[in-house]
Amino acid sequence: MAALRRLLADAPPGHHHKQGGAPSDWSAGYLNGWLSQQTPVFGLRLWVLIGIAVGAAIVLVLLLIFVCLSRRRRRRDEVLAANLYPADTKLLKQHLQQATPTKDIQEIVRRQQQQQPQTPPQPAVQLAKAEPPVTPPQQHRAQAPVIPTPPARKTPGSGMSATTSGGSERDGATPRSTGSAAGAPEVSHLGWGHWFTLRELEEATDGLAEENVIGEGGYGIVYRGTLHNSTMIAVKNLLNNRGQAEKEFKVEVEAIGRVRHKNLVRLLGYCVEGAYRMLIYEYVDNGNLDQWLHGDVGEVSPLTWDIRMNIMLATAKGLAYLHEGLEPKVVHRDIKASNILLDQQWNAKVSDFGLAKLLCSEKSYVTTRVMGTFGYVAPEYASTGMLNERSDVYSFGVLIMEIITGRSPVDYTRPAGEVNLVEWLKTMVAERKAEEVVDPKMAEKPSPKILKRALLVALRCVDPDANKRPKMGHVIHMLEMDDLLFRDDKKAGRESSDRYSSKEDGSFSKREHHRYIW
Ligand SMILES: Nc1ncnc2c1ncn2[C@@H]1O[C@H](COP(=O)(O)OP(=O)(O)OP(=O)(O)O)[C@@H](O)[C@H]1O
């Protein structure tokens, strides 16, 4: 700047008042000469210096704008989190304040944004009992995965197979072999299930074709497929496997694969090839509970009380098995309606168990899965991240409420006092309006007594004090009693006449109010 000032001072005084001739030519020539003169700054010409100064000023202004914008965005995210779920705020804040916010955290916020009224969940499918409601939910579709050319052959000892086409499910009893005679396919086996090759799965799903997409969740895209032996399968192509080591992946998958229960979706096998990590499940052919509760089913839901009770019981049994029938026990972490799959006979099976552990083995890895799903997460888990099977019981309580009412756990399209299902239901029960909470799409309502008992189970499950929540075994017992009552009622033919009689009005005793509502 000092050099500039000196140059300006050096300008000849007469140039402002040049008379006669062509003054503009003269000034242009003069300006040219003046700008072209050398400065003491590295011998640069004056116009170069001015250019650099202007450029630097522009960069500075842009930088300031960028800083302002990112501050505003961070602030907005925090406000959003606070509005959506106060209990999650602390956790979210920590994440948002990390120096390099990860994609997962952006995903959490994106998901929570999706819960807002501006983007109400679309009915996933047109439902008809005969036809599986399997159209992929459009709002969840992300980029289709790029299918890399399968590696021609695996390196010996890498544990990967490179079979020729047409391989079918293999017997899982034999130990894995990694070597093979020339020309023969390498075959790998595990004790519990099957190792599928990428080629097998591509054939089963027509090359992971778009029309075979059943749906998409936080873990990846799910495809319907048919094996050579006509077995229907569901193939979950895991996204973000985070470069999880092959061995670690297998150990975890094996653990999940050994779990067998009629109310848990069976894991048939997996595929590990190159960057691919896929899980192959039994195909459950009638969509998921979320679709049947919140999809477009018309005026009357096909889900009768009987069916709903069975779904509650089946889910409870699947969960009880994970919690109480296995050593070490498995905490599902993401019990919700879309993880309850249904078959044509309305048998319910819990899916996605164990996946949280499988995909979140790095401690620092925070996903929607660790967070659970908005609306279903137990308060203590949301606020401290501490997790045990009681958090599943809480989510199960929310699920029962959803099944009884047909309402989503969080629904921003509803009036203020009804947005949060748990809070609304507590209020309704406290105001002795329990019978008004039943899903209006249920043609035949349960009797007040039966309804009251089911609600009691739900309320006990969502007890803010985790230690007071019942164990799943106990929940089964309570639900079975309820189911028995319902069947007795039906037999006696009383259910239609005295459904909402004054004596059995679904109200709670004072003690129950105190215990479960407040
Ligand atoms: N074994 C299966 N048989 C039939 N359909 C399945 C099977 N597994 C998953 N699906 C369907 O695929 C869809 C996506 O499932 P996925 O479990 O990946 O996601 P989600 O449960 O919808 O969401 P999230 O990622 O939060 O768990 C669901 O709509 C589910 O109905």
UniProtKB/TrEMBL annotation:
Residues 208-485 form the Protein kinase domain. GO terms for cellular component: membrane. GO terms for molecular function: ATP binding; protein serine/threonine kinase activity. Residues 108-186, 492-518 are annotated as: Disordered. It catalyses: L-threonyl-[protein] + ATP = O-phospho-L-threonyl-[protein] + ADP + H(+); L-seryl-[protein] + ATP = O-phospho-L-seryl-[protein] + ADP + H(+). InterPro entries: Kinase-like_dom_sf, Prot_kinase_dom, Protein_kinase_ATP_BS, RLK_Ser/Thr-Kinase, Ser-Thr/Tyr_kinase_cat_dom, Ser/Thr_kinase_AS. Its EC number is 2.7.11.1. PROSITE patterns: PROTEIN_KINASE_ATP (PS00107), PROTEIN_KINASE_DOM (PS50011), PROTEIN_KINASE_ST (PS00108). ATP binds at K236. The chain crosses the membrane at residues 46-69. Residues 155-167 have a biased composition (Low complexity). Pfam families: PK_Tyr_Ser-Thr. It is found in: Membrane. It is an enzyme of class 2 (transferase). CDD domains: STKc_IRAK. Keywords: ATP-binding, Kinase, Membrane, Nucleotide-binding, Phosphoprotein, Serine/threonine-protein kinase, Transferase, Transmembrane, Transmembrane helix. It is a single-pass membrane protein. Residues 492-510 have a biased composition (Basic and acidic residues). This is non-specific serine/threonine protein kinase. It comes from Panicum miliaceum (Proso millet).
